[in-house]
Amino acid sequence: MYRALIGTSFTAIALILSSPGAAQQPAAPAQDSDTPDQTRLDEQRTSPRVPLPELPEIEDEWKDLFAEDAAEDDVALDAQDAPVDLRYEFELGPISRLKSADAFKSLSALYAERGKVVPSLAELQRRARTDSELLARLLRAEGYYDPEIVIEVDPTARDGLLLVTATVDTGPRYALGDIQITVDNEADRALVEQKLALEEKQPLVADDINGAFDRLRLGLGESGFPFADVENPDIVVDHDTRTASYALNVKLGDNSRFGQIQVDGDPLFSAKHLGRLARFKPGDVYDTREIEDLRRALIATGLVSTASITPRRGEAQADGTVPVDLIVTLTPAPQRTLAGQLGYSTTDGFRIEASWQHRNLVRPQGQVTFRGVLGTEEQRLSADLRRSNWKQRDRTLAARVEASVEDRDAYYARTLGLGAFIERETNLIWQKAWTYRFGAELQASEERDRSLKIAPGFAPLRTFIIAAAPVQIAYDGTDDLLDPKRGFRLGGWASPEASFQDGFFGYTRAQIDGSAYLPMMDDNLIFAGRARIGTIFGATRARIAPSRRFYSGGGGSVRGYGYQDVGPQDDEGDPLGGRSLMEFSLEARYRFGNIGVVPFIDAGQIDTRPYPRFRDLQFGAGIGVRYYTNFGPVRIDVATPLNRQQGDSRVAVYVSIGQAF
């Protein structure tokens, strides 16, 4: 049992709320029976309109039996006049060391209203009684069934505040006693006990007991018994032994196996393609997790708005198992998208982009995108095909045909290219640890290297025909795709290339990227770092097509500089491009609520040699703002170059979705 005590800190006063007019009165003098006064007295005693006199043998006021939460006898209130402006401070005392302290704080009336005006000491008593009952319930959930709870009030106001203190003696903790499990098939008892995972003498904690029951129901569905009948357990608490018995009745039913996948209604996908998306085969042990995985895979295609998967039991087989067919009903989502963008940059000028996309033009999951770009420095037309889950789940076949014209500070290029790739990519629903990409590219271009001038202000056009076989692999050990807080990422790619320009020659381009994230202050502060190193070996810089060289600068590399503005330049300030690349970034991401502030510093270098050297680094620094949404942070960075070159702007602004790295 528990008790709540309201009194002074000097002495514990148990005050019985008594009637002030309950004192006994002396007896009236005797009168003759026939006197008028006696007659009037008799009428008063028998008249229903006259209130009953106070009974001398009853000293307490009558309690209202219908009042909500009538005060218990052991809850007392100090009998003193309440101050005009009654406020109090509340201290939990030893309660703060209990696991239930946080839950108590969130629900406590005393804790929530501390420091505020209290109408009366009676209201303070009501809050104490309510909080005592609340704390008792919370302690029972932790296995303490015999706590003694004391709430004391120090009436001596300090700085205008009374002091209310709550202390508790939890008493002994109850434990789980006898566990009785009844199953319809004794051969499966071990499975039930394994999934339930309860032991005698373990603390009688409500979350653990309820969690074990939920774990059993889920575990049976994951082990071939999706139709098991698990009744609610019968739990009996014995206060004499301070234990609780646990009785459970389980009817497992038939052992189920996956059957066939069937499509109901107008088929968006064939049953064969649904089989590719499923991570199970007919005959595998039925697992409810695989059903949810298939449903999420269907939604992830972008072609399905709702997916319903209904199990249907079949006939029992000779081995005693029962096949369960899956009836899949899909509601198509809109399959076409028309999009456009309009932008302006002080470094790149105007840029207009438009695209049309059909996500299932080549069935199944054959996404076709036509895209056009019209800008000051770039014009581009392209057609892309992406067949997701091609031949197997999580594998994508991608192909592209593109024609482009680029007029950059470093070069001018007219290019026609095509390529085909096979890749395994990550996404927001399933962030994969390992991804890869490999394929082939063929490119024909006419390019003008502005650094190779044969006359003032003039560089000749050269024709390049390039065949490449790029290979890429990456590992992602972070906790979030767009906003990582811990872990690291490491990736690299290599592209052996054969080029024809005044004869055939070959070279290899390669790059390694890595980033790491360190959380602090309960994940409100994240230190993030990034490094990138690249090299091109096998040919001189002059022979390599300008569009295939390394460049640095911009929102994805060294902020504060424009695109291609980091690295060596010719006498007219045009970027040379290089055969090696080196970049570093450091950020401190501090978040409060949905807003974040990110100071950062970047460094980078381009070298005409094949291997980077740790010198002539160019630095950019600035500060960013993040607005955190459900799909990721919106990023706004403002940066300035710390060692500007001729033509560099003093300030650069970058806007995008997701962190910089």
TrEMBL record:
<dbReference type="InterPro" id="IPR034746">
    <property type="entry name" value="POTRA"/>
</dbReference>
<dbReference type="Pfam" id="PF07244">
    <property type="entry name" value="POTRA"/>
</dbReference>
<dbReference type="GO" id="GO:0019867">
    <property type="term" value="C:outer membrane"/>
</dbReference>
<keyword id="KW-0812">Transmembrane</keyword>
<protein>
    <submittedName>
        <fullName>Translocation and assembly module TamA</fullName>
    </submittedName>
</protein>
<dbReference type="InterPro" id="IPR039910">
    <property type="entry name" value="D15-like"/>
</dbReference>
<feature type="signal peptide">
    <location>
        <begin position="1"/>
        <end position="23"/>
    </location>
</feature>
<dbReference type="Pfam" id="PF01103">
    <property type="entry name" value="Omp85"/>
</dbReference>
<feature type="compositionally biased region" description="Basic and acidic residues">
    <location>
        <begin position="37"/>
        <end position="46"/>
    </location>
</feature>
<keyword id="KW-0472">Membrane</keyword>
<keyword id="KW-0732">Signal</keyword>
<dbReference type="InterPro" id="IPR010827">
    <property type="entry name" value="BamA/TamA_POTRA"/>
</dbReference>
<feature type="region of interest" description="Disordered">
    <location>
        <begin position="22"/>
        <end position="54"/>
    </location>
</feature>
<feature type="compositionally biased region" description="Low complexity">
    <location>
        <begin position="22"/>
        <end position="36"/>
    </location>
</feature>
<dbReference type="InterPro" id="IPR000184">
    <property type="entry name" value="Bac_surfAg_D15"/>
</dbReference>
<feature type="domain" description="POTRA">
    <location>
        <begin position="256"/>
        <end position="333"/>
    </location>
</feature>
<keyword id="KW-1134">Transmembrane beta strand</keyword>
